[in-house]
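[audit] Reproducing an earlier prediction to check determinism. Same input, same settings, fresh worker. If the tokens differ from the archived copy the diff job will pick it up downstream; this log only records the rerun itself.
[audit] input (383 residues):
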Amino acid sequence: MKRNLIISIAIVVIIAVAGVIVILNNDKSQGGPYGPSSNDDTLVVYKTVDFIDTDGIGTKAFSMLIPHDWKSEGKIEWIYDTPAMPVAGEFRAWNPNGNEEFQLFPNQAFFSSNNPMIQQTFPEGTRYFGALVHSPLGPIDALKEIALPKFRADIENLQLISQQELPEISSYFETGINATTGVITSAEAGKIRVEYTLNGVTFEDELYCVIQTQDIPLQTIFGTYRNINWYMTYIESFRAEKGKLDSNSKVFQTISYFAKTDVNWLNKYNQVVEYLIQQQIQQIQSLGQLSNIVGQTSNEISDANYQAWQQSQDVKDELANDFSNSILGIDSYYNPITDSTVELPSGYNSAWTNNLGEYILSDSSSYDPNIESNLDWQQMNPP
């Protein structure tokens, strides 16, 4: 499902956002919260983690599903000088008993121009309306030249293992030339796998990104020049100790796949972005001004914003499945606690949930977590 570039950019910002984290903690000293062990080998427990945009819109921005014994942290930041991309955020979830880690990095905005006057005023390395002035790069080069130095500055003995363009992900974005304005939009996706040493441990790390570009013609008395706004988006990483990355593919795929943007938050966010662009506001001066803008937004979700939300999920699904040769299977269940349908990884014989937003998946059809558990579990069945 394809939308215009501005809407797409807004989506990817949201997917990479992290804010106040609601972590579900269980006091295991009071007994086993998950009941007795299953007789079968596989018993998977996930918890829901919600992220609240406390400084901006004030509501839940998105939620994720992570293993119950993993930890997580993150933040969301409103940037006052970038009206087309006023949010940056980052999130990580990791196994405290191992070296597995999933990360979503903040999106990066860049600007380039072949206009000599702009080049003189804004040389490479400076900021142009909040965007870093830098020549356009493809996704592979952007991961190597920008993501690794910025997000992996503390590593040693870096080796590039593989690199790959991902045209199937690029196809989710609208590309081409606008016959009226002459604006050219494009999107490219790619991934690299690297190996390096960190704190004495050898890691394998697979990083992804999407490059979205807006090439805008600018008429001057000296001729036509072009300004290029380009964005490094959907930047995420799956890493583990060498030899264990692929064996943890289903966990990583689950975390990535179930990163769900809140459609109501997205609706208001897109309205804020549209307002800033239409009013040509270059800078939000304060949280109070942002609060006033949010107050003018509507709770009604337009078709465009709903389609934008759906596209964001489609892209995340594709990224999740691309991580491994195995495709993550999904089953639907009826959740009797929330009276709604939920999706969870497939391949299990029973599924349970509680009012904390936790889920148990078991290979055993007779498994019952309520036995010797200090929580109230409800079984879920296909709808």
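[audit] rerun output stored. Observation attached for the diff report: The helical segments are 5-15, 116-121, 139-151, 167-170, 249-257, 263-278, 287-295, 303-322.
[audit] end
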